[in-house]
Amino acid sequence: MAKTTVGVIGETGRMGSILTEMIGQDPRFELGIGYSMENSGDAALDRVFQENDLVIDFSHASLVEANLTAALRSPKPLIICTTGWSPEKMADKLSALSEKVPVIVASNTSVGACLQRYVAGKMAEILDEDFDIDVHEKHHRFKVDSPSGTAVSLAEEMINAKLKVYNLNYELYTPGHFAREEHKIGMSVERSGNIAGTHTASFTSLEESISITHVAFDRTLFAKGAIRAAAWLSEQKTPNIYSMYDVLNLG
């Protein structure tokens, strides 16, 4: 079976360098031409899509629009792992690309983090409005976006669950020096040291508290998840926008 050639946008970055090494060691893939700040420009970006079978974006939020524009010029299956950007603001380009090729949008490619989000959504469906909901996330001191894309996705999962089951419109808020209001999901952030990523969703009533936490010990897990997503995406023939839920068959 022919290998799938994979190009990485952000290949010399914190995550990109780990991912490129793992792609090179995987017998299903061949590492293709990538893109980095050292090898930048529209022509270099175009080559990534022209010369690879599949592209993984682990770059920066400011580059996502340019990446989508290049992808539309030479459509190839794409996995967007970059965080801190708004899919809603890029809806036109995303929609246009997903009519041509399959696309995965994943704020977190960790299998464990995806399962946490799925379970948290189910907990939000089961636990009624007596339970206050909070999300707390911790990352390394160099992370730019805040809150993390994973934390936002985690909160959105629970917001959607509350709307679906209880017809309640929950909103995010930042805890401060005031009494808590109903139907709010607290979001708090910590930036310290070299923390790879910790996310906690907690449900607290006057009588009890239940929490589900995902802790990333090593950034390798995100690369492993991206490779799992790439293997799944390489077999998809139907253009569409997919998520890690599709990759993991979570429905």
Structure description:
- By secondary structure, the protein is α/β, with parallel strands linked by helices.
- It has 2 domains: 4-109 and 219-247, Rossmann fold; 111-215, Dihydrodipicolinate Reductase, domain 2 (2-Layer Sandwich), CATH 3.30.360.10.
- The protein has 8 helices and 11 strands.
- It has helices spanning 14-25, 42-51, 64-73, 91-98, 111-126, 149-166, 220-233, 244-247, and strands at 4-9, 29-31, 54-57, 78-80, 102-105, 132-139, 171-173, 184-191, 198-204, 209-215, 240-242.
- Strands 2-1-3-4-5-11 form a 6-stranded parallel β-sheet, sandwiched between helices. The chain has a 5-stranded mixed β-sheet with strand order 7-8-6-9-10, with helices on one face.
- Helix 4 (91-98) links the parallel strand 4 and strand 5.
- Helix 1 packs across helix 7.
- It is elongated, with a radius of gyration of 19 Å.
- The two termini are 29 Å apart.
- 40% of the residues are buried.
- The model has no long low-confidence stretch (mean pLDDT 94).
Q: Give average pLDDT, whole number.
A: 94
Low-confidence stretches: none
Helical region count?
8
Number of strands: 11
Neighbour order of strands in the largest sheet: 2-1-3-4-5-11
What share of the residues lie within helices? 25-40%
Order of helices and strands: EHEHEHEHEHEHEEEEHEH
- CATH architecture descriptor name of the largest domain: 3-Layer(aba) Sandwich
CATH superfamily of the largest domain: NAD(P)-binding Rossmann-like Domain
Q: Identify the CATH class of the largest domain.
A: Alpha Beta
CATH topology of the largest domain: Rossmann fold
End-to-end C-alpha gap: 29 Å
Q: What general outline do the C-alpha atoms trace?
A: elongated
